[in-house]
Specification:
InterPro entries: P-loop_NTPase, Phage_terminase_lsu, Terminase_L_N, Viral_DNA_packaging_terminase
Bound molecules: adenosine-5'-triphosphate, magnesium ion
Distance between the termini: 72 Å
Organism: Methylobacterium goesingense
Largest sheet: 8 strands, mixed
Strand order of the largest sheet: 3-4-5-2-6-7-1-8
CATH class of the largest domain: Alpha Beta
Pfam families: Terminase_3 (PF04466)
Number of helices: 14
Number of strands: 17
Radius of gyration: 24 Å
Protein name: Phage terminase large subunit
Structural class: alpha/beta
């Protein structure tokens, strides 16, 4: 059978632990990867995991693309396209999984020969850290394809800037695609004429410093341009308490920043997010990291809804936290815009641990304004997506710090034993910030 590939993708047929193709749009990455996997899977039985960072349904996976390629390549005799899998008559199997917050399912995927991570730009550090050691069969390979966006994207740093041993990495663009459709060629040329800078990223595949519409664009540029950069290794000070700042998002998404106040510096020393867990999971997490890293906790700042939200329990989150022996504060209610302003002001005094806050920083870098569908301009409202939870927790951090003094009177909560604890635990001077 004669199947053609762009020359730059020839390496897909040579063994390598990592095969990475990145660049602008239309570089024949998806088709090339999909076709190569089908050809290899038709030759011998392979277990192929097709992964993406976000996959809420099979429709968001590479399933449709592979099914289409089975038809185009005339391989219907070799493959049976099922609802959630594609099976080869020789025993080859394609399975599809989302990575984010799916640790247990990813870890339990045994015997994978090839893992293809498609649209890999936004794969988080936490996801890579779980996925890579899961692909452990001798000779197993990890294939990665993505469109370039930010120079600081975890995937870009990990596989392009400092690629691991045994990685084959190619940049591939529409110029390398002999079948580049004319409609797309016109799109590319139009954008080049209209907005050459945007063209550089979208079609040229060159990284930018900040995303268009990024809410903290200036602050991030200032922090990374500072000398020394305020993104780096941030020391933990064992003589100071660790405060935490929480977002309790929709669908049980929870994000937590861990911070210390040292002199005039705010040190963001760690970040954690997850979803689909009851509060006990996070309480256990707090304990585990405290043991590992010798944290002594100060205050745990929760958003307002902690007074109402239950996370699979009869008691509110606030009550459960008190019962677990934690000192809880509720972040004052402020508009999103005012919270963003507070965060912008605070940014200049923040130092971020690049490693332990990697996923939180990724959220801050990707937190952006929504586009108004009527005008196609950026609106005043942040886009609600995967990045907003970490960014919301950071906003609460700023609001809490901006207004740390008098603890809020528990007027709007029940005057129960939790409220009494809240009052008795609050220091006479207000909060534990100055500690
Ligand atoms: N091997 C091939 N044979 C024939 N046509 C191809 C082949 N590879 C790519 N094409 C054509 O080029 C188009 C773009 O390819 P593809 O979607 O794989 O690019 P991509 O790099 O994944 O793009 P994006 O960056 O937008 O995800 C396809 O829609 C198809 O029309
Ligand atoms: Mg693609």
């Amino acid at each position: 059978m004669q199947v053609e590939f762009p020359e730059k993708l020839d390496f897909l047929f040579e063994p390598a632990r990592y095969k990475v193709a990145y660049g602008g749009r239309g570089g024949a990455k998806s088709w090339g990867f999909g076709r190569a996997l089908l050809l290899l899977g038709a030759q011998r039985p392979l277990r192929i995991l097709c992964a993406r960072e976000f996959q809420n349904s099979i429709a968001e996976s590479a399933h449709a693309l592979l099914a289409q390629q089975v038809d185009l390549l005339g391989l219907s005799d070799y493959f049976d396209t099922q609802e959630k899998r594609i099976l080869g008559t020789n025993g080859t199997e394609f399975i599809f999984k989302g990575l984010r917050h799916n640790v247990a399912s990813v870890k339990s995927t045994e015997g994978v020969d090839i893992c293809w991570v498609e649209e890999a730009r936004t794969v988080s550090k936490a996801s890579w850290d779980v996925l890579v050691p899961t692909i452990r069969k001798p000779g197993s390979e990890i294939w990665i394809s993505f469109n370039t966006e930010l120079a600081e994207d975890e995937t870009y740093k990990r596989f392009v800037r400092t690629p691991p041993t045994g990685a084959r990495v190619v940049k591939i663009g529409w110029e390398d695609n002999p079948w580049f459709p004319d409609v797309l060629r016109q799109e590319a040329l139009d954008l080049k004429a209209r907005d050459p800078i945007a063209y550089e990223t979208v079609w040229g595949g060159n990284c930018k410093q900040v995303l268009d519409g990024a809410i903290y664009a200036n602050e991030i540029l200032a922090a990374s341009g500072a000398s020394p950069s305020r993104f780096g290794k941030v020391p933990f000070d064992p003589s100071k308490p660790v405060h935490t700042f929480w977002d309790l998002g929709r669908a049980d998404k929870t994000a937590i920043w861990f911070a210390q106040v040292v002199g005039f510096e705010f040190r963001l020393i760690a970040y954690y997010e997850n979803r689909g867990h009851a509060l006990q999971h996070y309480i256990d997490y707090l304990r585990t990291v405290a043991e590992e890293r010798q944290y002594v906790y100060g205050e745990h700042w929760l958003p307002h809804d902690a007074r109402n939200e239950l996370l699979a329990s009869k008691r509110t989150i606030e009550q459960q936290m008190w019962d677990a022996g934690h000192r809880v504060r509720i972040v004052p209610k402020l508009t999103v815009a005012a919270g963003i302003d507070a965060a912008r002001l605070l940014f200049a005094r923040c130092w971020f641990d690049e490693d332990l806050c990697a996923d939180g920083l990724q959220a801050l870098r990707n937190y952006r304004y929504d586009v108004d569908p009527a005008t196609q301009q950026f609106s005043k409202n942040p886009l609600h997506d995967w990045a907003s939870h970490g960014a919301d927790a950071f906003r609460y951090f700023a609001v809490a710090i901006a207004e740390p003094q008098a603890p809020p009177k528990p007027l709007d909560g029940p005057n129960d034993r939790y409220a009494r604890r809240r009052r008795s635990d609050a220091k006479p001077s207000g909060s534990a910030w100055a500690a």
